[in-house]
Amino acid sequence: MKVLKKESSKLASSSFELYRRRLNWRLVTQPKIKNKFQEIAESARNTKYPFNMFCRVHDETVNEATVQLSSGANKTGVIEKIDTPEKKGSTCEAEKGSALVASFSSTGSVAFIIYPYKSERYARNEDSIILYIALSPDDVSDRVIEKCICKYLFYNRNSSIYGVYSNSFMDNIKINWMTFVDVRNKKKLYKGFWVLFVGWSKIVGAGIAGYIVAVITQTP
């Protein structure tokens, strides 16, 4: 039947493209992102950036991986005194969780997600912002990576308690726009259009999983 030949040809072409994307990520895109993230972490140390930045790679799962640029936990200066029969002392609140995650999914797509600083007393409403989604590894250029880093550093300052008095009127507009254009909000706005049929949650799943692993290992 002609339909079998047609479908077989399409599957062969799609399988080759998936293989090509996975190979490109492993050999080119992942190392490029890692190098960029390591460079900015090193520059942060050399320029005395106030937060400790570091890069981690989570590629234990074959054909799924994350490269993560994180900003270390900070003490907020809020100290609670403990005076109970069982325990005496004090605890210092910390803000943590800030990260830029480049996620490669099993479907061969790349997403960039930023996570804010959060503490018990000070936190933004959203848990994360998706900057890019469903990118081909071919499209992850130096310019794309650098744009993500710039937005992450801006978001890092905006979400930290130490940046609360640094945000201008234009900063607030910018951060609200970044939240507004997040693909998840677009999905709500244009629900029903077939172009948004792909489940974003599956595409960024690897990024979220890798991010959780890194957050668990952070200490104030």
Task: Please provide a brief summary of the model.
By secondary structure, the protein is α+β, with helices and mostly antiparallel strands. It is built from 6 helices and 7 strands; from the N terminus they run αβββββββααααα. The protein is elongated.
Describe the structure.
This protein is α+β, with helices and mostly antiparallel strands and 220 residues long. The protein has one domain (2-217). Helices cover 45% and strands 23% of the residues. It contains 6 helices and 7 strands; from the N terminus they run αβββββββααααα. The chain has helices spanning 2-46, 142-159, 169-180, 183-189, 200-203, 205-217; strands spanning 53-58, 65-71, 74-83, 88-95, 99-104, 110-115, 129-135. Strands 1-2-5-6-7 form a 5-stranded antiparallel β-sheet, with helices on both faces. Strands 3-4 form a two-stranded antiparallel sheet. α1 (2-46) crosses α2. It is elongated, with a radius of gyration of 20 Å. The model is unreliable at 192-199 (pLDDT under 50). Keywords: Membrane, Transmembrane, Transmembrane helix. The chain crosses the membrane at residues 193-216.
Percent of residues in β-strands: 15-25%
Largest sheet: 5 strands, antiparallel
Instruction: Work out the radius of gyration.
Output: 20 Å
Helix and strand string, N-terminal first? HEEEEEEEHHHHH
Number of E-state strands: 7
Count every helix, treating DSSP H or I runs of 4 or more residues as helices. Answer: 6
Tally of domains? 1
For this entry, what is the oligomeric state of its chains? single chain
Helix content range: 40-55%
Distance between the termini: 65 Å
User: Low-confidence parts lasting 5 or more residues at pLDDT below 50?
Assistant: 192-199
Mean of residue pLDDT values? 85
Spatial order of strands in the largest sheet: 1-2-5-6-7
| Structure classification | alpha+beta
Sum up the overall morphology in one term: elongated
Keywords: Membrane, Transmembrane, Transmembrane helix
Transmembrane segments: 193-216
